[in-house]
Amino acid sequence: MRAGLRTVLEVGGSVRVVGEADDGRALLEQVDRHRPDVVLVDVQMPGSGGLDVLRTLCARPDAPPAAVLTTFDLDDYVTEALRIGVQGFLLKDAEPDALVRAVLDLAAGGAVLDPRITARLLPRLAGGTPARPPVELTLREQQVLGGLSAGESNAAIGARLGLAPATVKKYVSALLVKLGADNRVQAALLAQGWGL
């Protein structure tokens, strides 16, 4: 499976796989050795499970963006992964172009969710989410949050709004605090629930 995934990711030349691991300990060693721009982790791994490894990885201050890449799209896995702080949840049966695009979006600071997962989460979120944000958002904050909702990276949001990526990053950090969201994915799901 890893060999096939490597081929899918590298075929166009825009992504280079710098390491592979068959268990959680080896994954953390590969991250330390190669300092990748993005880490993809399967939920089912020998030894420590993928979610346990992600807890360790996402707790690091210098952690690269991480996403779950799995065949298991169980709601419990998705919820726990988002709580841990991953920036994406992808399914292995996604189209090759979608996987490459997701890795590039993650590397650019974006957040990605397989559309099938988003479709399942939105109704649940809408049921427990107010029709409007619980706090007052400035127009600029709404624009940035709309970009998060669309899965845009900081650079893409900045280009669209005429802001430097560092300025967008500050807006995103402030929005996470205001909204009580743990990460970009949670903020994006909230924004989608509000129709932003």
Automatic annotation (TrEMBL):
- Gene Ontology biological process: phosphorelay signal transduction system; regulation of DNA-templated transcription
| Modification type 4-aspartylphosphate: residues | 42
Keyword check for Iron, yes or no. no
Superkingdom is Bacteria
Residues in HTH luxR-type domain copies? 130-195
Which InterPro entries would you find in this protein's record? CheY-like_superfamily, NreC/VraR/RcsB-like_REC, Sig_transdc_resp-reg_C-effctor, Sig_transdc_resp-reg_receiver, Tscrpt_reg_LuxR_C, WalR-like
One of the record's GO molecular function terms: DNA binding
Protein's UniProt keywords contain DNA-binding:
yes
Query: Lineage in the entry?
Result: Bacteria, Bacillati, Actinomycetota, Actinomycetes, Pseudonocardiales
State the name under which the record lists this protein.
Answer: Response regulator transcription factor
Q: Which organism is it from?
A: Pseudonocardia petroleophila
Locate the Response regulatory domain: which residues?
1-107
Alphabetized, the UniProt keywords read:
DNA-binding, Phosphoprotein, Transcription, Transcription regulation
Q: Could you tell me which PANTHER family the record lists for this protein?
A: TRANSCRIPTIONAL REGULATORY PROTEIN NARL-RELATED (PTHR43214:SF24), TWO-COMPONENT RESPONSE REGULATOR (PTHR43214)
